[in-house]
């Protein structure tokens, strides 16, 4: 039973407002004394010709609002506050989690619909820096969230594999390239020769000419240049794939910018046919004055294409191939104007899918008093960040394991540190609204009591260990549907049940606003509520066996909620630590 919906049905029945509207208006009050659900009566003032306060007190007294699953209904100012029967609520919610396990929160909202999620999109031959980590982590999480809601998700990696820099790299590699180094650490080597090119270019204009020629040859499809470029691309991707694999990130399509170059003539023709293309200072542009945007350049004066034209071609490609209902670009906020222009051009060109394109932007990444041993000069790569986080986590859990005499092997500790260390980084990226800048600090992100992944994972592991211990002692958690579950009505228990009950809604909200933090916040609240319960109530001691079994069922539900919630964020849990 969906309690919110049941409340909505009751209100809709007596207030003469449609169910959907009521459902949308119902709030989850911030304080316990305001009930579990609240309906603001403002919306009824017009039809009922009364002040909201009066409506609220009249409705509160109505017989029709009584039900065995409601303990009481109260008017407070203009609000109608519903207090559910705790036992009935707990039984319902926990039964559902026990039945569905990790499928809890799964929905069919997106059945038959496709969402394209473009994320990561690093640049070939360049280090995978912490900004690319932001899009990778957000996009990975959003993909899983949409999937949970029943959407078909297409993960696209729009690799930056096109541009004049590849002409430079070809020239540089022929002059100074080290084969062995390229095979061993491709990006480090490519970066080295790229930097060298720029230094040498200052005194040697011939280098510039050579690079330009090589880029032209590449564009014209000359064999040797294409072969070198392909190698740079493949080797870079191989290196990126190590990171993706480490984080469990996958893609369905790796078409880079270069792929779309060949589709640009089609776009240019289409824009010309529609009379949208104009000449401006030699370049071909689409004017966007009516949208209060600067013109979007389609072809430069020398006839070469630009970033925006490749994006126009890519958007059409995505629609033609996937018939998306939504096309999401997880790209940093500095590119907001670029996407406004691209979407505006699509709209002017009458592309029906223009309105379904969304830029999901994010802020900057900063570091607070953190030293890194970086391979790539002063650029902090994701690999550096992950390695350092894992190393620090290892020290913490190792010390902890020694104090507790846990008997865990070093391999076990390392495996745990890998998951927790990665989780700590990932969580830092998803714990706040994505448009806010992120400040990394070891103290904050590795605080086992803070709003962190280590805290969530530790809560999970400790709860798992309680369940194991209980099993050893012969206690089985109460089953789905069991009356024992209605015993979970104490303040701490009920608070925890409520947080779990709101998880499906948090998943929906995260998708609706493309904000994984709406979910991370809920998971964190579940863990907080559970820990309050854990600190105040004994689970295994005492001799009320029925209560024990009910509480173990709560433990089980908390574990499932944390596991599925963190999974949707891209974080893995561990069974012990
Ligand atoms: N490769 C670009 C960068 O690193 C991001 C690509 C964004 N995606 C797009 N469709 N333009 O800045």
Question: Could you provide a short overview of the structure?
Answer:
By secondary structure, this protein is α/β, with parallel strands linked by helices. The chain is 56% helix and 9% strand.
**CATH class categorisation of the largest domain:** Alpha Beta
Number of strands: 12
* Helix percentage range: 55-70%
Low-confidence stretches: none
Q: What name is given to the CATH topology of the largest domain?
A: Rossmann fold
Biggest sheet architecture: 4 strands, parallel
Number of helices: 23
The outline comes out as flat
Q: Tell me the structural class.
A: alpha/beta
What's the architecture of the largest domain in CATH terms?
3-Layer(aba) Sandwich
CATH superfamily assignment of the largest domain? Answer: HUPs
Could you tell me the mean pLDDT?
A: 95
Instruction: Give the quaternary arrangement of the chains.
Output: single chain
**Number of domain units:** 3
What is the CA–CA distance across the termini?
36 Å
Q: Which strand-content bin applies to the residues?
A: 5-15%
User: What is the radius of gyration computed over CA atoms, rounded to a whole number of angstroms?
Assistant: 28 Å
Associated small molecules = arginine
In spatial order, strands of the major sheet run 5-4-9-10
């Amino acid at each position: 039973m969906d309690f919110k919906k049941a409340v909505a049905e009751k209100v809709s029945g007596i207030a003469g407002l449609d169910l959907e509207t009521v459902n949308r208006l119902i709030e989850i009050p911030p304080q316990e004394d305001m009930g579990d659900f609240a309906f603001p009566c403002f919306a009824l003032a017009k039809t009922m010709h009364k002040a909201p306060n009066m409506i609220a007190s009249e409705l509160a007294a109505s017989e029709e609002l009584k039900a065995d699953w409601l303990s009481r209904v109260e008017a407070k100012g203009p609000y109608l506050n519903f207090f559910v029967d705790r036992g009935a609520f707990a039984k319902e919610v926990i039964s559902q989690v026990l039945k569905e396990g990790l499928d809890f929160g799964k929905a069919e909202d997106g059945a038959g619909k496709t969402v394209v999620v473009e994320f990561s999109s690093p640049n070939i031959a360049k280090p995978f820096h912490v900004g690319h980590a932001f899009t990778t982590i957000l996009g990975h999480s959003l993909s899983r969230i949409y999937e949970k809601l029943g959407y078909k998700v297409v993960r696209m990696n729009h690799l930056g594999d096109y541009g004049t820099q590849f002409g430079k790299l070809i020239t540089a590699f022929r002059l100074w390239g080290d084969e062995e180094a390229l095979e061993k650490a491709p990006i480090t080597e490519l970066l080295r020769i790229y930097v060298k090119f720029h230094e040498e270019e200052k005194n040697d204009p011939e280098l510039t000419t050579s690079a330009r020629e090589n880029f032209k040859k590449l564009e014209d499809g000359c064999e040797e240049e294409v072969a070198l470029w392909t190698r740079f691309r493949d080797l870079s991707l191989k290196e990126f794939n190590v990171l993706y694999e480490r984080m469990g990130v996958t893609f369905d399509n790796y078409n880079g910018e270069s792929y779309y170059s060949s589709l640009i003539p089609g776009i240019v023709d289409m824009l010309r046919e529609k009379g949208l293309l104009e000449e401006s200072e030699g370049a071909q542009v689409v004017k966007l004055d009516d949208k209060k945007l600067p013109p979007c350049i389609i072809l430069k004066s020398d006839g070469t294409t630009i970033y925006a034209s490749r994006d126009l071609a890519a958007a059409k490609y995505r629609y033609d191939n996937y018939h998306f209902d939504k096309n999401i670009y997880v790209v940093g906020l500095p590119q907001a104007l670029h996407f406004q222009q691209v979407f505006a051009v699509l709209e002017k060109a009458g592309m029906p899918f223009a309105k379904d394109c969304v830029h999901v932007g994010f802020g900057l990444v900063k570091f607070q008093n953190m030293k890194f041993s970086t391979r790539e000069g002063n650029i902090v790569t994701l690999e550096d960040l992950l390695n350092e986080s894992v190393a620090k986590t290892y020290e913490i859990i190792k010390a902890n394991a020694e104090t507790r005499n846990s008997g865990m092997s070093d391999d076990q500790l390392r495996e745990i540190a890998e998951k927790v260390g990665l989780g700590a980084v990932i969580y830092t990226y998803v714990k706040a609204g994505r448009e806010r800048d992120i400040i990394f600090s070891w103290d904050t992100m590795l605080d086992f009591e803070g709003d962190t992944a280590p805290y969530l994972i530790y809560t999970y592991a400790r709860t798992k260990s309680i369940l194991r211990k209980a099993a050893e002692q012969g206690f089985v958690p109460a089953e789905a549907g069991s009356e024992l579950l209605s015993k979970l009505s104490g303040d701490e228990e009920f608070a925890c049940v409520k947080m779990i009950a709101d998880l499906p809604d948090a998943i929906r909200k995260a998708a609706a606003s493309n904000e994984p933090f709406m979910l991370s916040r809920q998971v964190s609240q579940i863990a907080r509520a559970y820990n309050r319960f854990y600190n105040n109530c004994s689970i295994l001691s005492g001799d009320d066996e029925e209560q024990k079994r009910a509480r173990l069922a709560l433990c089980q539900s908390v574990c499932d909620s944390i596991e599925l919630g963190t999974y949707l964020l891209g974080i893995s849990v561990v069974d012990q630590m």
